[in-house]
């Protein structure tokens, strides 16, 4: 150890490497905090850092190409459409992040759940970026199933399972090898459940959108005052976004182009 202490009778060692961000980026940007990806809320500068941990509540990516394609599209879009940046900043939906030197975390580095949240905000506020992400998400799933369908995936996992059984036997553990518990048929069942879950979420989101529109209409009919910054004031924009997204979906996913 660092203090010269010697540990004896050790069977296993787990080496955990910590993460310390590069504070030179904050110094270069002369930023004290980040609002989403923008140093001090300046939308002319865009800083994205890969997250140093994983939010294990739900795994959304299995490769680098789909998220990087989305990041590139999102960054280019907001550089070319500053009015969308202003709307995003004025929405109040983007988190503000400050540097935490004692934790080795610069201002541009977000915790996994918070970092995912601001990405979802910027994707959702632009129908064009949303349209790309819909195609990108399907590409992510299709490429995975093309390279490793249920049969190929289960076969590779079983080979690895048997390899571990062989390693245990070589160490003197001579017991019957257990069968691999996840055959291809079970993988196909999980895939079917995933598709059903996606359909349920899409239906729930569509119903939620209709309920929100209906609730806003009832408030307006009741004479509710509309003021800038209040949730009700965002309903017209949400209605436009929903209509545009329905148009994008009906056109087969081709995003409209703005000058």
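^ structure tokens above, recovered residues below v
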């Amino acid at each position: 150890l660092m203090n010269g202490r010697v540990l004896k009778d050790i069977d296993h060692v787990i080496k955990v490497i910590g993460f310390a961000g590069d504070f030179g980026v904050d110094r270069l940007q002369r930023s004290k905090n980040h609002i989403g990806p923008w140093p001090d809320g300046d939308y002319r500068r865009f800083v994205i850092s890969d997250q140093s941990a994983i939010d294990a509540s739900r795994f959304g990516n299995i490769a680098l190409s789909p998220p990087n394609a989305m990041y590139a599209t999102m960054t280019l879009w907001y550089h070319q459409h500053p009015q969308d940046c202003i709307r995003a900043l004025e929405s109040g939906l983007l988190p503000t992040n400050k540097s935490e030197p004692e934790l080795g975390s610069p201002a541009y580095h977000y915790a996994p759940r918070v970092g995912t949240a601001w990405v979802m905000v910027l994707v959702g506020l632009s129908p064009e970026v949303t349209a790309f992400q819909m195609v990108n998400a399907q590409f992510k799933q299709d490429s995975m199933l093309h390279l490793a369908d249920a049969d190929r995936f289960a076969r590779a996992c079983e080979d690895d399972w048997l390899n571990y059984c062989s390693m245990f036997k070589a160490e003197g553990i001579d017991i019957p090898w257990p069968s691999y518990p996840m055959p291809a048929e079970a993988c196909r069942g999980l895939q079917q459940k995933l598709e059903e879950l996606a359909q349920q979420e899409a239906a729930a989101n569509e119903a939620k959108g209709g309920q929100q529109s209906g609730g806003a209409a009832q408030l307006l009919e009741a004479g509710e005052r509309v003021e800038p910054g209040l949730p009700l004031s965002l309903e017209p924009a949400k209605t436009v976004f929903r209509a545009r997204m329905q148009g994008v979906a009906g056109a087969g996913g081709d995003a409209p182009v703005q000058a």
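Helices lie at 24-29, 65-80, 82-91, 112-125, 127-147, 150-170, 184-221, 235-250.
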